[in-house]
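Predict the 3D structure for this chain.
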Amino acid sequence: MVPGPLWIRLTGILLGWLVALQYALFNMDESVEHRVLKAGYPAGTAQALRDEATADERAAAAARYASRYRPGIARRDPE
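Done. Predicted structure below.
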């Protein structure tokens, strides 16, 4: 099909596959949100559920960051 050495053809296939994977991953949130809207849920439901599911992890990560990189700044309660 495409002239040239086998390694060039295989590299082209691999790079094309990686671009397609990147495109799919970058558009995943919008795709899920669209499917949730089509199912009859209000806009923003999917993002709210994702945020709720990872709230504890994000709070712990923020606390670790603050303790490591901002030791002299007084901590504020996020709520």
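The chain has a mean pLDDT of 89.
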